[in-house]
Prior knowledge:
Elements: H1 2-11, H2 19-44, H3 46-54, H4 58-85, H5 92-106, H6 110-124, H7 132-138, H8 140-152, H9 158-161, H10 166-188, H11 203-231, H12 237-250, H13 259-268, H14 273-303, H15 309-313
Helix pairs in contact: 2-14, 3-14, 4-5, 4-11, 4-14, 5-6, 5-14, 8-10, 8-11, 11-12, 11-14, 12-13, 13-14
Amino acid sequence: MPSIALATHSDSSPVPRAGLPWKRLLGLTVPFVALAALIFVIAQRRDVFFHAINSAPVWLLLLAVVLQLVALLSRSEAWRLCVGAAGSTIPRRGVFRASGIGGLVGIVNGATGVAARIATLRRSAPAQCPHVGPLVAAEVPIVAIEIALAALTSFTLLGPLGLPWWSAVVCVTGAGAGVLALNRLSKRRTTGFWSGLAVLRTLEGRGRVFGLVIVAVFCQIARNYLALHAIGVDASVFDSIAVLIAMITLSQLPIGPSVGAAAVVVILGTHGVALTAAAGVLLSATGMAGTLCFGGWALAEKFLPTRTAWRTAL
């Protein structure tokens, strides 16, 4: 029976995927359309835009890049703990390399970056790495913590977006229920796909991942605050948090490097479209610079391996 089924499958012609080329075309086109729309808006107020960009001090830009790097490293360490609890024995260097390559791909789309990170880790050492299912599940603890933090600070979106007060209560309640359910699930399901949640089974594991994610989030908030004030936008810490939530949400869409500008305009557009767009471009530029530094190191590690003492120490 198996041989018959195999012969039938081999003789049959492959089923064409009519929708796949359109999906790829859409994924390639949307970022350029979003970028073109941003350029059009900037062109209408180019004097204000370029004056705001030129007013940003160089030291602040460098500090923003450093904060982005710290956030990336902290989140990568949290991911290492998650995949390690799921059964990975790949050393820190290999996990960070996969994270860096995933970050490069994630510049265009966050979801694609996650897939690239997992694929890179699997290909680097398949014998030392869990299957794809547990690796996908290992993303969940970090994402759940980020969603919970966003829910706890969702009140920062009420004013900019004109949302009712009870929407923040709904967010907090939903996030709390989700975290509790996830914690119970990690203890009841310990094999297969759900083994990726193993880091949540111990207080130490939960605490370490939570602490690392907090560091990453605080670095992002600080970067937003510094960049907004460097451009001349009178933004509070709460505004910086709201911008971060908007950036994370919009990064799920295939709009590429225009995410930062779109997020700042949505939250702080009342300060002037050109001014807030300049702040958003600055955020995207510093974020991309930090990601390129991390990703550049990852590519160098992948294609130009060297045997040094510091690598052995890692």
